[in-house]
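Hey, quick one: can you model this chain's 3D structure?
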Amino acid sequence: MKIKFDVAYIEEAPAILEERVLYVSLTYATVVHLCACGCGSEVVTPLAKSEWRLSFDGQVSLSPSIGNWRLPCRSHYYIVGNEVRWVRSEISTRPARRDEVTRCAEPTRPQFAGALGRIWRRWRTDRARGAQSTPSEPRES
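Sure thing. Here's the predicted structure for all 141 residues.
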């Protein structure tokens, strides 16, 4: 079964993510989606030369691969032309079918350290508060 993502270009990610949707925020140079295996975990891919790259030719591709080693599902895949291409390895294998996936008890939240962590936590806090400010506007203390 092919898993294909829809793409939503956003400024900030919605509070509740939908399955099979890639949320692309050029403002935050980040792509967010729910894990392709169906476990419900939030996957964040920061876009930078040293991180992931986003290419768009009518369809979206992310490289390098997305390896969710810290999630219980340990899924590993590429997103090429909006489609998931599973990577089989000794560490991780793709579930045979989506309905066979054992869902995590609770979706995990990404953990980041340093500057990326501060940006991520601010983004999540602002989003939860319903803040309408843009990064170019000064933030009130």
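One thing worth noting: The first helix runs from residue 114 to 129.
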